[in-house]
Amino acid sequence: MLEDGEKRAVGSRVVKVLAHRRDDRGMSLEPFASRCVRRGEVHELVTTDHDDTAAGARIDRVAFLGFVEIGNAGVVDRGDEVWCDGELVGTVLGFDACHHPNHYNILISTPVPRTGPELGLRPEVEVVFSPAVVPAR
Questions:
Q1: Which of 66, 119, 115, 113 is nearest to 93 (CA)?
Q2: Can you tell me the distance from the alpha carbon of 132 to that of 77, in angstroms, rounded to the nearest whole number?
Q3: Which residues belong to any copy of the DUF6917 domain (predicted)?
Q4: Cα gap 9→81, rounded to integer Å
Q5: pTM metric for this prediction
Q6: Please, what are the averages of pLDDT over each run of 10 residues along the chain (137 residues)?
Q7: Intra-chain end-to-end CA distance of the chain, in Å
Q8: DSSP characters for 18-73?
Q9: Is residue 64 part of a domain?
Q10: For residue 36, what are the domain limits?
């Protein structure tokens, strides 16, 4: 049974750039492969080179990109591509809810954790969560 159909991209804009990193952060991956987001919500973007998607997986090596304000409601799924100012940054690994309901940490899988300044992020830069392109069968 096919569970997922097409969806629209979720657009957002940077509201605060973050420049720090940690090797002992201790985030815990939520068991959910997707989260609904509403227009106007603010969520934190965190890059990591961890690749374990098991519920409760510990995420230590991280670099913080910043906070984004969601521009249109939608669904952010594990595996979505994350584009910052037109540049592919990585894919959504999952979510950490240690600050929820204030905000989610959206964990982004990258070869090397990178901070906001390392990606050239600035306030108002567009960040898009786009469905990954699945090859035709």
A1: 113
A2: 9
A3: 5-129
A4: 10
A5: 0.93
A6: 81 98 93 96 97 91 98 97 96 95 96 97 98 68
A7: 16
A8: ---EES---EE--S-SEEEE-TT-EEEEEEE-----STT-EE--EEEEEEEEESS-
A9: yes
A10: 10-130
